[in-house]
Amino acid sequence: MRDAYGVRSTAHGANLIQLTRLGSINAFFVREDDGLTLVDTMIPGSAKGVLAAARVVGAPIVRLVITHAHGDHAGSLDALVERLPAVEVAFPARDARFLRGDKTLDPDEPQDKPRGGYVTVDTRPTRELSPGDRLGSLEVLDARGHTPGQIAFLDTRDRTLIAADSWSTLGGLQPASLTHPRVLVPGIATWHRPTAQASAAALRDLRPARLAVGHGRVLEQPGPAMDAALARVEDLE
Fold it and tell me: pLDDT digits over 70-105, tens only?
C-alpha cells in the first residue's frame, strides 16, 4: 500500500490493484502479460497519482477503459491520455455519446432524466465496447441503470467482478438502486433504479469470487453479502 499524489494503491490477489482518492473514489489496475489495464480514472487531478502508482507496480499502462460517463470515473481521462499518447482507449458504446456531450436518450430507453455529474472529454476512443466483448482478460458485462450505458468487467482468470457503480460498499454493501441514508454516492446519481436493480442481480448471478466497486472497499467471496443486500431491496418493494 502506497500513497502518492493523493492516490493510495492496494493489491487484491495476483491481478487487481485498487487505486483510491479521498478514501472513497476508486479506479483499478488489472495486470496483463503486456502491462496494465486501467479501469476508470477517478476525479480530475488524479493523473499524477495514477502514473506514480504504475511506476511502483513496474508495468506500463497499455489500456485505459471508462465504465461510464460520470466525472468521478472519467475526470482524469484527458490528462492521462495526454501523458500516454500510445495507450488504447475504450469507452462503453452507449456512454460514449455522453462523453462526447450528447445527453439525449434513445426512444426505447426509460425517459428518466440522467443524474449525476456527466463530463464531456476531448479524447476519442480507439475502441467502443459492448457486452460480450473482451478486453485482455476482462469480459465486458452489461451494467446499465446507474447510467444508460454503464459496463462492468469479469476477470476470467479469477472471477474478480469490477462492478463500477452497480454496487457500492460505502456504509455497507448495496446496489445502486438504493441511496444509503448516510452515504449518497452512487445511489443519488442513479438514472433508472429498476434497471440498476436488474443489473445488480445479474452481476450477482455470475458468482464472483471478488467484488471491486467504484466506491468503497473490495470484498472477497461477496456472494452471501450480495444476496442479503438484494433481499433487503425486495423487502422495501
Answer: 999 999 999 999 999 999 999 999 999 999 999 999
Give the C-alpha separation, 126 to 149, whole Å. 18
SS3 147: coil
Closest CA relative to residue 215, chosen from 21, 7, 4, 50: 21
Instruction: List domains and CATH numbers for the chain.
Output: 2-236 (3.60.15.10)
CA 16, 21, 22, 26 dihedral sign is negative
Whole-model pTM: value is 0.96
Q: Residue 219: which of 153, 164, 158, 161 has the closest Cα? A: 161
Three cell numbers, residue 175: 446496489
129 Cβ partners below 8 Å, 6+ apart? 65, 90, 91, 92, 93, 135, 140, 151
Distance from C-alpha of 95 to C-alpha of 164, rounded to nearest angstrom: 13
> Peptide bond before 222: cis, by omega within 30 degrees of 0?
no
Q: How many CB atoms lie within 10 A of CB 179?
A: 17
